[in-house]
Write a structure and sequence with these properties.
There is one protein chain. The protein has helices at about 5-25, 30-40, 90-105; strands spanning about 45-55, 60-70, 75-85, 105-110, 120-125. The radius of gyration is 14 Å and the shape is globular. The protein is about 35% helix and about 30% strand. It is an alpha+beta fold and about 140 residues long. Helix 3 links the parallel strand 3 and strand 4. It has one domain (about 5-125): Lambda Exonuclease, Chain A, CATH 3.90.320.10.
Amino acid sequence: MGHTFEKTSYKTIGACIEVKQQLGPHCMEVDVQRALTLALPKHGLDFVREAEIPIFFDGIEITRRRVDFVVWDDVATLLLEIKSARTVRPEDIEQCLLYLHNGNFRVCLLVNFGQTPLFKKRLVHSPTGPALYGPHD
């Protein structure tokens, strides 16, 4: 039996593939973000772009970081962090884990549009409270 987020992940990756096919591998990250704002709704997804995730120390918010997208449909909510680089770095994965942990999200998709084929990595977290954005799954 699958997870509730699989359908949402599949639709999100479909939107990313559509953007990659039309823009190619050499577009800047900001152009990919703009194209995704058009592609995600075509795939039945709602989103918040550049959603702020608070970072805490000893229960006190010390800063905020921005995840590229919070994406959801009627099934699940997930984070989408995009890159447009030759390769994904370990710091990119750490960034996603930071967002998952501090935002109480369950899933983050890390997608790199600079690689061919499109690089996709799904990171999963077990949150302890409600997510900051979107409907809860």
